Fold this sequence. Notes:
Layout: E1 2-6, H1 10-20, E2 26-31, E3 35-37, H2 42-46, E4 55-57, H3 58-61, E5 68-72, E6 75-79, E7 84-87, E8 92-94, E9 97-100, E10 104-106, H4 114-117, E11 118-119, H5 124-140, E12 148-151, H6 155-174, E13 184-187, H7 199-211, E14 214-217, E15 222-226, E16 229-232, E17 235-238, E18 242-244, E19 248-250, H8 252-256, E20 282-283, H9 296-314, E21 329-332, E22 338-342, E23 345-349, H10 350-365, H11 370-378
Parallel strand pairs: 1-2, 1-9, 2-5, 9-20, 11-18, 12-13, 12-18, 13-14
Antiparallel strand pairs: 3-4, 6-7, 7-8, 10-19, 15-16, 16-17, 21-22, 22-23
Amino acid sequence: MKITIVGGGFGGVKTALELARDTSNQILLISDKPDFQYFPALYGTATGRSHLQSWVPLGTIFADKQNVKIVIDNISKVDPDAKSLTSDTGNVYHYDRLVMALGSVTTYFGIKGLDDFAYGIKSEQEIMRLKHHLYKAIAEDHEVEKQYVIIGGGPTGIELAASMGQFIKRLCSHYGVPHGKVGITLLEAMPRLLPKMSEKTSSKVKQRLEKIGVRVRLNKKVESASADGLIVNGKPLKSHTIIWTSGVANNPFFAANADHFELAKNGKVVVDSQMRTKNGIYVIGDNAATPFSGLAQTALHDALFVAKNMERRQNGKRAKKYKPVLPPVVIPVGENWAAFEWRFLRLYGWVAALIRRVADFVGYHDILPLGQAFSQWRAQTVVEDDYFTPTPPKSK
Length: 396
Ligand SMILES: Cc1cc2nc3c(=O)[nH]c(=O)nc-3n(C[C@H](O)[C@H](O)[C@H](O)COP(=O)(O)OP(=O)(O)OC[C@H]3O[C@@H](n4cnc5c(N)ncnc54)[C@H](O)[C@@H]3O)c2cc1C
């Protein structure tokens, strides 16, 4: 079977790995970046932990898979009648079967100035830009902000807020800049953190953040951003370090090709019980309008489902129906503390932190053989010294 997969993230890579087990399958994996990005570790890399934990070259993942060809290209169009894909540079790829897993993008909900003045942590470039900004202010200009502002009380904002203070203190100590208490402020527009999780978890996480010195401000709606700070609920808030972790939207590819896709209210693609569109294109992970879309574990679940169903059809068996599965969620909040929630089960503290460490190992092992997964996982504990040398990396 010849299968084309677009997207080298959780969904695309896992689908390719599963299908590659059958050596009669020929797989073309097209992605716009040469690396697989392990999103759950990005906050760690942004706050001084190893770079290795967050990116794995696609070439390494598929090194021993002779039947997987990797092409780095940015797909901008699909023509389901001609069964072809076109990239933004005009390359055309014909497909027999197509799986799309393009992931999400950042949205600023039209808030003026965020695009220009806020930092992000969703890609290598964004992380480099943020770290370089912090380095320049502290190491070169000897300036420590009164408050570093993180917008978004979801998992990413919380993980980042809890670990950023330590990184800033480390930079200050290394470059001999007096810092005192580093002011990290976390802003959330809703009345509580983690609005998708239980109230108990919201309140436990808030208490924990406050205990480690993060100021949590709820019901705070950001109205605009400028070089000097934010307007929040009509009042100015001064800061030169604003980090936006809120807002994700479906990949704009689908709206740009809207003739071929039915989009749900949230912009995600409507799929049938086999995760296909009416044109027979498989759409999985963050792109699919399924109940638990937006989590890495859902993308992995979708990938396994689609690969298994393709195999069943190939062997003349009836395809199965998609069943959404609620994944457990574990949010680390500083060293050795996490909040775990799954159905009615809740755990807070070091046991949950241990679960998160195990979950990360499983996450790496989902895409890498045991030995490589272990090295990648071990890198999570390695403190990087790239900003503590006389020649730090240049911002991209
Ligand atoms: C900071 C952060 C932390 C997160 N932490 C967690 C967590 O702890 N647990 C959890 O379960 N989930 C987490 N998530 C969510 C999780 O990362 C996503 O749900 C998951 O990555 C979705 O997988 P996917 O395959 O749909 O998309 P992705 O993994 O995003 O992969 C999409 C791929 O498509 C490529 N691509 C995009 N457009 C094109 C194009 N036009 N042409 C070619 N290639 C293209 C991209 O480069 C990428 O390789 C986090 C997300 C973020 C942003």
